[in-house]
Specification:
Layout: E1 23-27, E2 30-35, H1 39-46, E3 59-65, E4 71-79, E5 83-88, H2 93-100, E6 111-114, E7 119-125, H3 129-135, E8 149-151, E9 154-160, E10 167-173, H4 174-186, E11 190-191, H5 194-203, H6 237-245, E12 251-258, E13 265-269, E14 274-283, E15 286-294, E16 303-307, E17 310-316
Parallel strand pairs: 1-11
Antiparallel strand pairs: 1-7, 2-5, 2-6, 3-4, 4-5, 7-10, 8-9, 9-10, 12-15, 12-17, 13-14, 13-16, 14-15, 16-17
């Protein structure tokens, strides 16, 4: 579901990226609920992926593209059967909701509801995070990134645990939020920073659902697992199919570290090649950056990006 995994080691430290103690952070998120007897069919027509066979409590990411094959929204799913909860950045709310309310035929039953502020997305990570989740009464052996597990009236999953530094994700209704935070802090979990949580995911090659990917081609972001060219038509499908058949995917996404923050947007390397910074988030004294670049760009030992009058050296994570 994410870009090709990269080395998960901080080269300057020789250790896996993690905080020294467990932390929690609230990731600002917008909430959209799609419901109705034909909601899944309608949503499936819009997505690049196929959700027709998703089961209750399935977890996945998806994108909706325009006719030019460029992303208009990137969202996280929590499948509730006849209801599908979509968690996304507020910056894509208008595009997403406009797409969802367009093209519904007279004989379809599709409802689109706004749930902003009703559900909160919480990440728990850092050294000892697994023990904290166990203390909450959750069997961590039941958690995987493809499904949600019910926890009281909330849901919990794990974003990634393959390298021994799991990041746990909870969707929590407002009425349970204060109790959850009280329990977490009672177990010694401190409130962290959004940058840290996003940087930890970026270092693993994971695109957090709060990152705005609008205007990018998903194939340039390594999102091949959520682009299903065999599912049939969807907006942008012809563009994606042509790119794949003609071996025309000339860009890719990699994770880099730098000693200063990179501004989001398009820049040039020192040798004049175009790159695009998708995100730049601080972890301790470094910044972890997701950068779209030409596939044939020489990355070793580093690339130098020109921003204003400053040349910033970026090393692969």
């Amino acid at each position: 579901m994410w870009m090709r995994p990269i080395l998960r080691i901080i080269l300057s430290m020789g250790h896996k990226m993690n905080t020294q103690r467990p932390e929690y952070v609230r990731i600002p998120s917008a909430i959209t609920l799609v419901s109705g007897e034909t909601a899944r069919t309608h949503l499936n027509r819009l997505l690049t992926s196929n959700i027709s066979n998703d089961q209750l409590l399935s977890r996945r990411h998806s994108v909706i593209c325009d006719l030019n094959g460029r992303i208009t929204s990137y969202q996280l799913h929590a499948d509730l059967g006849e209801q599908i909860l979509l968690v996304h950045g507020d910056s894509v709310s208008e595009n997403l909701r406009n797409n969802l309310t367009t093209g519904v035929t007279w004989n379809e039953n599709v409802n689109v509801s706004i749930g902003d502020g009703a559900i909160h997305r919480i990440l728990v990570y850092g050294e000892g995070a697994e023990n904290v989740i166990i203390k909450l009464g959750v069997n961590v052996n039941h958690l995987n990134s493809a499904n949600w597990v019910e926890y009281n009236d909330s849901m919990i999953s794990v974003i990634d645990a393959d390298d021994g530094t799991p990041i746990y994700e909870l969707l929590v209704p407002t009425r349970e939020l204060s109790d959850l935070i009280m329990n977490l802090e009672g177990f010694g979990v401190i409130e962290g920073k959004k940058d840290t949580a996003i940087a930890l995911q970026s270092s693993k090659g994971i695109l957090d659902s709060s990152i705005n990917l609008s205007g990018n081609n998903p194939l340039h972001l390594g999102l091949t697992e959520i682009v299903d060219l065999k599912k049939g038509c969807y907006p942008g499908q012809e563009i994606h199919a042509r790119m794949e058949s003609r071996d025309a995917i000339k860009k890719t996404l990699s994770s880099f570290r730098s000693n200063s923050q990179l501004s989001i947007g398009r820049h040039k390397t020192s040798n004049g090649l175009g790159v695009q910074v998708i995100s730049s988030d601080q972890f301790t004294q470094e910044w972890i950056n997701l950068i779209v670049h030409p596939r044939d760009l020489t990355l070793d030992p580093a690339i130098n990006i020109q921003i204003d009058n400053e040349k910033i050296s970026c090393h692969l994570v």
